[in-house]
Specification:
Elements (H helix, E strand, L loop, with lengths): L6 H12 L4 E5 L9 E5 L5 H8 L4 E4 L9 H22 L3 E5 L11 H14 L4 E6 L2 E3 L7 H9 L1 E4 L4 E2 L1 E3 H13 L8 E4 L8 E2 H12 L4 E4 L2 H15 L7 H7 L3 E2 L18 H14 L4
Parallel strand pairs: 1-2, 3-4, 4-5, 5-10, 6-9, 7-12, 8-13
Antiparallel strand pairs: 8-11
């Protein structure tokens, strides 16, 4: 597994270990030992580490990626070249099964460098000759997530600045991790060479304003939501970069895809229900996320 120390990867790792799986995971920093888990020191740029990572593997879940980078080269390095390095290591070791975690942003590669790099990574996977399945999550939320934390903090203040008019899909991190593990255990392998788009099961997704109201209910506040025009979000991105530098959450690249009106998953691309269905109602999941943020002192 790659990306096991991140938000999505950590949940996937916990579920895998709880299910009795033996996991090998790569890490840049020393990690505490756990039963049935082998940590491999290294990164996606480390060929020897990747070779060790995939040795004797039945399946590789490639979650690691870059969601924020200063330029297109940074996104390409973390998402496209990193994926190619994993593919090369699998080929060398004769490992066939790859579950590749992409993003719904790959559907519109012309909108952002992030989406472009994720779509390029998908092309590498499709050309790999491996037994691959690609999963495109939409916005992911859940305890431990810092990307959506800013929305919860705005809701706590009672005012939420949302993107312009449009709709989005979301998914809770535990539900997403369950799908990855279901794919690893699939016996008939009908998911081979499929690209799946997954969500919380809400028909036609969420209106931006309605989703903002749902977060308000999760934090126990009545909130006023405002559709923020593109130009104002762009100005906010420049200010965020000025004050937080590389730690900025709102970047010009993100503004480009935040303002796209349709980030709703396509029904025809959803996984078959025999394989997986979401179990976490979003209102309950958002409330659990807000409670977890408070417990950690983040909210």
């Amino acid at each position: 597994m790659t990306g096991a120390t991140g938000f999505v990867g950590a949940e996937t790792l916990n579920q895998a270990l709880a299910g009795g799986h033996h996991v090998t995971a790569i890490t840049r920093r020393a990690q505490p030992p756990r039963a049935h888990l082998k940590w491999v020191p290294g990164s996606l740029e480390d060929r020897a580490a990747l070779n060790t990572l995939v040795r004797d593997a039945d399946v590789v879940i490639h979650i690691a990626g870059v969601v924020n980078a200063p330029d297109r080269d940074g996104f390409e390095l973390g998402n496209a070249r990193g994926t190619m390095a994993v593919i090369d290591a699998m080929r060398q070791r004769g490992v066939r099964r790859l579950i590749h975690v992409s993003s719904l942003a790959a559907r519109e590669p012309g909108l952002s460098d992030y989406g472009w790099s994720k779509e390029l990574a998908e092309r590498h996977v499709k050309a790999s000759g491996l037994d691959w399945t690609i999963v495109r999550p939409p916005a992911i939320y859940g305890p431990g997530d810092r990307e959506m934390l800013e929305l919860f903090r705005m809701a706590r203040r009672g005012v939420m600045l949302m993107p312009p008019e449009g709709r989005l899909s979301v998914i809770e991190v535990g539900d997403l991790a369950r799908l990855f593990l279901a794919l690893t255990m699939e016996r008939e392998m009908r998911s081979l060479t499929h690209v799946y788009e997954v969500d919380d099961g809400t028909p036609n997704g969420w209106d931006h304003q309605d989703f903002g109201q749902a977060i308000g209910r999760a934090v126990g506040r009545s909130v006023r939501t405002f559709a923020t025009p593109n130009w104002l979000l762009g100005m906010g991105a420049r200010v965020d970069r000025m004050f937080r530098g590389k730690g900025a959450k709102l970047t010009p690249d993100r503004v480009s895809y935040f303002c796209h009106p349709d980030w709703v998953v396509k029904k025809r691309k959803q996984p078959p229900k025999r394989l997986w269905v979401p179990l976490v109602p979003t209102e309950e999941g958002l409330k659990a996320t807000a409670d977890a943020y408070r417990a950690k002192g983040w909210l």
